[in-house]
Amino acid sequence: STIDHSPSIERQNDNSVRQEPAADLRAFRQGWVSLKYSIDTFARCCLVMTIETSVDGGAGYLLPSSSGTALLATVTACAFLPSLLTPPLLHAVGLPPLPTLARRLRPWAHVSVVTGWIVLRLWRGGEAFEPTFGLLAGDGGSGDGGGGGSGSDRREEESIVVGLLDLFVLLVRRASDLALALSSASELDAVRIPTSAAVVLLNDLLGLLLLRASLSALASLLRLSPAEVRSAFVHRAFVFASENIGTVRKELAKEEDKMIRQIENETKDPARKITRRLPPRGTDRTALIEDMRSRARKEDEKWRDGLVSGTVYSGEDEHTELLNEVYAAYSWSNPLHTDVWPSVNQFEAEVVSMTASLLNGGDASVVGAMTSGGTESIVLAVRSALRYFGHRLSVSHPEIVCSTTAHAGLDKACDMMGIRMVRLKPDPVTFALRPGDVERAVTRNTVLVYSSAPNFPQGVIDPIGELADIARRHGVGLHVDACLGGFVLPFARKLGYDVPDFDFGCKGVTSMSVDTHKYGYATKGTSVVLYRHKALRQAQYFAYPHWTGGLYATPTIAGSRAGGLLACAWASMISLGEEGYLSRVKSIMDATRRIALAVADIPGLKLMGGPPKAMIVCFGSDAFDIYRVGDRMSKLGWSLNALQRPACVHLCVTLQTVTHADKFIGQLEKVAAEVR
What we know:
alpha/beta; 21 helices; globular; about 55% helix; about 675 residues; 7-stranded mixed beta sheet; 4-stranded antiparallel beta sheet
């Protein structure tokens, strides 16, 4: 069960209302914060002076350097006074506070620092750059007369700092000298010996940390592909230019306005009524319903005519009426409150169980949860893999191996959780993920391999069986995105169609996502995410016991959810039954085959990925621009999916498309002939 306490608003009495502090009190507080910051800066300056002291090896006590007093005065003047005087000066000239000013100047500061660093390090007024080496040269203590030099000679050598690494080594040596001087000043072995040992161990620890960080950075650089570097550079350059260069910002704003106007002209009715404010009085119920029904009838014409790829997967009037009645019965329900609506909780559990029975391959331990759609199912599967295969095994830089054909919901999940995506190009002919490429891409940072059954662009099923073996061998997760195929492929297999292994029957599959609101024919807004065992499902949960409102725990991203949608999913599956799904899948698969065979015979067109094994017919062309075909089909009323990399177009066959398959074939033949 899950608990969700909504934060309540407590009304305070007149005596407990906190008054806003007066302006002079706020000014005093700001001044006090500035003073504390200045004192802290002064303390840090004193610490710097302590590090700048040198060690007299014979006397065994600390002596300040000859320039210590002057340096202390300089650092104090540069750090203490500006921090005290800057706030009133900025206020006097009308500039924003220092933190705000720093945020505005930060992008330019990054560019200036990098440019200045390159100029100062490499430019010598036209002279050739000849680097010299200080601490890392290793020749100060050897050679003729070099051994056993005095402490002053050693300090003079150490003062040669060429780069940041030299400075780091110098600071470590000075800190070691300071600690050893403190230990040698004591005559007690109980103090001197542990301190000396601690200095040695700390020195080694710093060295190991530096080595580890360097190797980790090198490994990350080696893992980066040229495409990733180029993409990151282009993105940063674009963001910088769009935010900080006036000309670029104006041109982008002009193009954005142009695109918005174009989209509005193409997708919105210019005569539509727009309500921007809450009406002073409520609208009559009869008029309101009639207005909404009028809008719906006009917008439903296109998909009812079977001219839309995917989008509406059932549309049968009798089934729609059933779902509407079910939703009306549970329109106020919320599965978060199981004590109020226990039947909704049961609906969810049974939908998960029925879905798992189609895909578990005989593994009774498969469990799951219902979500708001395919994207949330993917996000939760990624969260589960990150926590189970990543955090549990101390993976600090998680990666997911996937194909470039993977659904964009995976990009969203990785962007949310800071996971690096290792994108692999699919086979150029079959558009399936190649197991050999996946084997080479898996590293110690991999937490998940992502596959599709089928993928959205070409409708190709990845070789799940081979990928499952790779995932098991490397001890990583394997997710199968079956949002499109979850309620088609199991029944197509029963009908005798050639369907490769794709579900939990492959032992390495750890999670799957299946959309009930697609070919499960449920109302929009439901999906199912399945896991091999309970520990994986538990990794997707969120629970926070320390909130002042009490325990807060949710199984999915959302807190409150629409119980009516879960009830509709249950009603859809129960009302259709296995027989209903089998008959619908047969109609869809037969229509898909008929369309695919016709497309293959049209001169200039070619099937992408070979004959379809699911419900998607994807086609491109080597003879002409395939987008021209898509545009002309759009003018005839069809709404197809235009794809890229490579350029192609696809039709996702639904029940509405089945009865219009011949119409699609005829119009496609005509359009292709015109484009040729």
